[in-house]
Amino acid sequence: MTSGEITVGNPVRTDVDKTSAPSAPVTVRAHGLSKSFGALKAVNNVDFTVTAGEIFGLVGPDGAGKTTIMRMLAGVLSADTGDIEVDGVDVTADPEQAKLHLSYMPQRFGLYEDLTVAENIFFYGELFSVSRTDRLVRSQALLKAAGLADFQKRLAGQLSGGMKQKLGLICALIHTPRVLLLDEPTTGVDPVSRREFWGILYNLRESGVTIILSTAYMDEAERCSRLALLHAGEIRYCDTPARLKATMPGVLLAIISSNPRALREALTGQTGILGVLLMGDRVHVRVDDPAQRIPEIRASLANHHVEITSIEQVVPGIEDVFVALLGSEETA
Amino acid sequence: MNLRRLFALAYKETLQIWRDPRSLAIALLMPLMQMAILGYGVSLDIKHVPLCVYDQENSQQSRGLVQDFVSSGWFSISRRLEREADIRDAMDRGSCNAAIVVPVNFSRTLAMNGTAPVQAIFDATDVNTTNIALGYAQGAMAQASREFVTGWAAAHGTQPSLVGQINLEPNTWFNETLDSRNFIIPGVVAVILALVGAQLTSLTISREWERGTMEQLISTPVTALEVMLGKLTPYFMIGLIDAGFCLAVAIFWFHVPFRGNVITLFTTTMLFLIVVLGIGYLISVRIRSQLGASQVALLVTMLPTNLLSGYTFPIDQMPAAIQALTLVVYARYYVTILRGVFLKGSSLTDLWMPIVGLSVYALLIIWLAARAFHKRIN
Q1: Which of the residues B219, B223, B375 would you substitute to probe the A interface, choosing the one with the greatest number of A C-beta atoms within 10 Å?
Q2: ipTM score of the complex?
Q3: Shortest CA gap A37–chain B (Å)
Q4: Domains assigned to chain B
Q5: Interval B214-243 mean pLDDT
Q6: Which residues in chain B are contacts of A71 at CB distance < 8 A?
């Protein structure tokens, strides 16, 4: 079976080459998923397929529909049209059956702040009918991995933001889910906790758990196996980070300047410049042909009296790709 | 239904109640306070009606008559007047609600005619109080005339019965002292349990929505029925404790006679708790903010239980349409049951009608409550 055939059977609505469709057994499949709130189309005809052992990232600006998709996948929000299949179970028809095999961590902290770490873990273990031995073994291992072993008697409300998210993950993993749904799991989490968090996710992927997460962090998006770029409720692009970068039109230049704002001002609208993006002390400029445009840029900046330290061609990050792809859609 | 999940929920809910000592204190102390306030405050009896005395004769006999008013316990003398015009003044100032005027030749007229007029004046701005005070005054007068007749007979060496005195001895059953408190306190217990019960559970679902814990809870395999039963169980226990408190106060503090048996009381109280807790839960499912749910619970329970349960206003004296309306006021069944158990010692079979009414209600509420909660955000 080639990957191409799977794509034909399960059309993924993207504008990108679809050869990355996975050949492993499918565990989550969304088809023609739509949801409106009044006049607002929050999610519009979304299709995607995620296979076991993947970390699938939903990336997009606020209001793109990430949370709505997550909620529908978790079976806590009904879809207007379309269907979702989780591990062979139709979520839209039988959400309760699907819930046996999935774990969902909402964007807002969903555990009980007036219960301790251990009590929250116990509660969720009981809800998923985890045996006492399993619960103890798993919770000890997870608490250790998350650096929470010494905080079991602390009330969840007294944990830091990062600790809360890690506790949420522990509660989500106290049974053995086949699918893990994480809605912006590391928002407001410090870098160390985020590293520990991702350490746990990688281990899970190794053991064959399908992970779907939404994120607003581009560095986090880069860690995913595949990404869906969402915009206004639609998936515009869906592929691996590497392939997405390859699809980005043009070549990326990084220009370091003491006055990046003036630099952006000077270059915007110039022929051959596809996009200008401020990145702290530097400016990422996307051009169609570097050989021709670099001298032009130097000349133009000199004209505008903008001093620069260096210009060099760089490999684009996901943020560049994201802005480039969605930005070109806006103008198209 | 999975018992393990049900127990987990009940345990979690218990921990949360326990960790919130202020709410727990309110849940346990409020009924006691209400019991004291309503038990003392709501009484249809009027004691110590302020009485003005204008005794024009001031003889031994006239003083005896006034003394009969005072010793009845229903009146206390607030002023002794010297002029008839002072009566109007005293009434206007509110220093008395009733006045008696003993004429100047009272004892002579009585001795000559065997009867003598005494004027009693009432401030009838409060008709209810006046009617009751009037009754008391007649009672006191009857007592006085009995004493007079007995005294007259003794003085003339005859038996009192021989002077043809007719005495009406009213015989009251079940509430021998005609103490309206005995009648009202069981009703107060019902009203308090209806209020507190609905308050207790009205927050249980809305709290989860408000704190953001519901979304994760409904993503688990827990069923709506398990959520309902798991959440209601701890509040059922608190409700039983509250009921125990209120009933104990009624029996041991207010000395309402308890003639029934404890099992009847216990069974019917549990039935009533199911209804009131279920109603609070229904409200909680429908209204997603804690404040809103608590307000609605108060509104829905307060007026009907106070006005239409028959606890102060007798149902059989209401217009037919209102009487029909009281059938949906679940507290009326429990009021009837409590009065029966307390004052008449009624058994479960005696009380089959209100028990059936309450059972139908309980089944309906549980059915509605079980269907009301959906594991969905929208």
Answers
A1: B219
A2: 0.83
A3: 10
A4: 3-43+179-372 (no CATH), 49-163 (3.40.1710.10)
A5: 94
A6: 215, 377
